[in-house]
Amino acid sequence: MTKTGCVKRGLAAAVLVLLSAPVMAQEVADIHEQRHERGSVCFTDHYHYGSSAGLPSKRAAQAVAIKSWADFVDLEYGSAWRSWARSGSKSIKCSQDGIHGPWSCDVSSRPCRGGR
């Protein structure tokens, strides 16, 4: 096989993977029980978690922990589920290491997507 043929096949495979990723993410989401609430579709009792550590402020630690949560939800279920603002049963617990030490946060929430 020529170099051009290999490149074309590689590109075709990449396109197939990219096009099928949202479908696979939704199939994974469908294994969890879901319900309508507040105009969204949310997992009933399935939580995801995020965390941060060693940050200079509580606000920064919260933002990094929420991004950690959203990035993992996006990886597992797709971008439709990644909104922290839309998610349900949110919990944010932060602590500071000493009086002037760094901040750490742990977050948890049930992923939700726009209702349809």
CATH third-level topology: Endonuclease I-creI
The description of the largest β-sheet is: 3 strands, antiparallel
- What is the CATH architecture assignment? Roll
What's the N-to-C terminus distance? 47 Å
Identify the strand order in the major beta sheet.
1-2-6
What is the highest CATH level, the class? Alpha Beta
- The number of helical segments is 2
Radius of gyration: 19 Å
Summarize the structure.
Keywords: Signal. With about 120 residues, this protein is α+β, with helices and mostly antiparallel strands. It has helices spanning about 5-30, 60-75; strands at about 35, 40-45, 50-55, 90-95, 105-110, 110-115.
Q: What is the topological layout?
A:
Elements: H1 3-29, E1 34-37, E2 40-43, E3 48-55, H2 58-77, E4 88-96, E5 103-110, E6 112-114
Antiparallel strand pairs: 1-2, 2-6, 3-5, 4-5
Could you walk me through the main structural features you see in this protein, from its secondary elements to its overall organization?
Residues 1-25 form the signal peptide. Keywords: Signal. By secondary structure, the protein is an alpha+beta fold. It has a single domain (32-114), classed as Roll (Endonuclease I-creI). Helix content is 41%, strand content 31%. Strands 1-2-6 form a 3-stranded antiparallel β-sheet, with no helix packed on it. It has a 3-stranded antiparallel β-sheet with strand order 3-5-4. Strand 4 and strand 5 (103-110) form a beta hairpin. The longest helix is centred in the first third of the chain and has 27 residues, at 3-29. It is elongated, with a radius of gyration of 19 Å.
